């Protein structure tokens, strides 16, 4: 094993360790952004319920499958999206 291979492995391990530490922070920021946009679009209670159900592993997947089969959201948006002229 050459010195270049060792340095490359060492750098990859160090970078993966740093990324592993930052993943929870990135996930938390994405979750907060999702809650904020959903609450703005659906209202406080409906947005919180929608995001909470989506956060649960099997419940969120079942909810999404049900919404796709049904063709619309369980918790509808406050205001329907209209096309601008």
Descriptive notes:
- This protein has 85 residues and is mostly helical.
- The chain is elongated.
- The mean pLDDT is 86.
- The chain is built from three helices and no strands.
- It has a domain of 55 residues.
Task: Please describe the structure with a list of short key phrases separated by commas or semicolons.
78% helix; elongated
Shape: elongated
Residue fraction in strands = under 5%
Strand count, sense and barrel status of the largest sheet are:
none
Q: Measured on Cα atoms, how large is the radius of gyration?
A: 21 Å
What number is the mean pLDDT? 86
**H-E string:** HHH
Structural class: mainly alpha
Low-confidence stretches: none
- The number of helical elements comes to 3
Helical amount: over 70%
The count of β-strands is 0
Question: Cα distance, first to last residue?
Answer: 66 Å
Layout of secondary structure:
Blueprint: H1 3-42, H2 44-55, H3 57-70
Helix pairs in contact: 1-2, 2-3
Task: Put the structure in a nutshell.
The protein is about 80% helix and about 0% strand. It is mainly α and about 80 residues long.
